[in-house]
Amino acid sequence: MRRDVFQAIADPTRRDIINMLSKEALSVNEIAERFDMSRPAISKHLKILNECSIIQFKKMGRERICLIQPQELIPAFLWINQYHKLWEARIDAFEAYVNQLKNK
Prior knowledge:
104 residues, alpha+beta, Arc Repressor Mutant, subunit A, three-stranded antiparallel beta sheet
């Protein structure tokens, strides 16, 4: 099964992991320690992120270090950004309408 970036970001735990790894590379154990769930559950989330190419694993001694591949998030950013622009225009129009009502 080929996974994509949207499957990766669909889960809040995976979004939290992406956020953590955007700040620093962490070992699998360091990531697992930050969640109130089993190590196998975290490993499953990491496997999905790896299958989506959002993270890669690097072996350092006995540890597996997780490194983010932020360029893989670009398709999701571009898709979300188009709706951001749409809603921004609508919010601006609503704000203008409210200001117009206030001035009456």
